[in-house]
């Protein structure tokens, strides 16, 4: 019996020993592997209306402000920050300026002036929030139709819009961008938007030299515009009536990389001298870049005035753009 127990005990030990040899030690946790960093694509983004490198978001909604260009309104505030400025005749031989802001915003802008229907059409081409002070009958009907988000100083005079003491009405209405933001919030207007970019070029323009441009909206000095190209700044500087266009507050000069001049049909429609201007049918024009002029055809593409050559779009140089609308290209010299 004792011998049988010894045999059974020995067999059990051998069995247990075999099991113990089959138990494997737990595997150690692997060392954490650092995930390679992806390139920061935000640094590759550019602003849609200037083509210049952007830091942060590029989806701020375009703000379009109707800026007074009467001699008594000069120099204006905030124009140096505008991405695009349209200069178009209002009544008589005085132009008004539609300043489009998207990549940067001044503290304030003005003097702000009244709306006309064709300025609203240009603003709508960028789905902009339109800012004005007053309106023509045609502009009033268009804005009250509900197709355009707008802030009108007629309803915010002394609140969102402020009158300055150093100028007289109607050349003294100003608005800050803080108040534009406040007014948009009160009206429920969104200030973020997807903005289709303009076409931009990376090659240098070729063509006839044009370092100085003269645009004579009339024989009167105050209605004459001039641009001078400064090569070391790679910019055009603007002049009205022989005076350089600067910012009233900072004294910074207006510097422009693209000057587009287009001819469009103008018609006087009432006894006040208001006009209709055909900004739809297209026509001829000139594009000035880097001190070079190119003859172009312009087209209205979804509300935007764009230059074309042989049916293909001509890219803008990255930077600021001014677009002068004239009744006849004969008033343009270089």
From TrEMBL:
It comes from the Bacteria. The keyword Signal applies. Residues 1-21 form the signal peptide. The keyword Signal applies. Keywords: Signal. PROSITE patterns: PROKAR_LIPOPROTEIN. InterPro entries: DUF3048_C (IPR035328), DUF3048_N (IPR021416), YerB-like_sf (IPR023158). Gene3D superfamilies: YerB-like. This is DUF3048 domain-containing protein. It comes from Parageobacillus toebii NBRC 107807.
């Amino acid at each position: 019996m004792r011998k049988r127990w010894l045999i059974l005990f020995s067999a059990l030990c051998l069995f247990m020993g075999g099991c113990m040899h089959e138990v494997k030690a737990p595997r150690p946790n692997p060392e954490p592997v650092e995930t390679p960093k992806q390139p920061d694509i935000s640094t590759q983004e550019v602003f849609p209306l200037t083509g210049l490198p952007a830091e942060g978001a590029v989806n701020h909604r375009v703000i379009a402000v109707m800026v007074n260009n009467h001699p008594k309104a000069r120099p204006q505030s905030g124009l140096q920050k505008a991405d695009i400025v349209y200069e178009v005749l209002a009544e008589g031989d005085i132009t008004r300026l539609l300043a489009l802001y998207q990549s940067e915003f001044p503290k304030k802008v003005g003097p702000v002036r009244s709306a006309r229907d064709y300025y609203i059409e240009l603003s709508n081409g960028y789905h902009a929030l339109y800012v004005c002070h007053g309106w023509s009958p045609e502009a009033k009907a268009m804005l009250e139709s509900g197709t355009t988000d707008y802030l009108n100083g007629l309803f915010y005079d002394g609140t969102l819009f402020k009158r300055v003491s150093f100028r007289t009405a109607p050349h003294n209405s100003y608005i800050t961008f803080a108040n534009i933001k406040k007014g948009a919030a009160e009206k429920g207007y969104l200030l973020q938007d997807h903005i289709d970019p303009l076409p931009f070029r990376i090659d240098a323009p070729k063509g006839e030299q044009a370092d100085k441009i003269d645009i004579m909206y009339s024989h009167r000095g105050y209605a004459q515009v001039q641009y001078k190209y400064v090569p070391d700044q790679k910019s055009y500087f603007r002049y009205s009536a022989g005076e350089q266009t600067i910012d009233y507050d900072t004294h910074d000069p207006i510097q422009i990389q693209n000057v587009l001049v287009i001819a469009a049909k103008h018609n006087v429609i009432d006894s006040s001298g208001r006009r209709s201007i055909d900004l739809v049918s297209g026509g001829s024009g000139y594009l000035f870049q880097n001190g070079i002029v190119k003859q172009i055809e312009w087209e209205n593409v979804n509300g935007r005035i764009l230059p074309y050559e042989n049916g293909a779009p001509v890219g803008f140089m990255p930077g600021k753009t001014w677009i002068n609308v004239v009744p006849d290209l004969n008033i343009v010299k270089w």
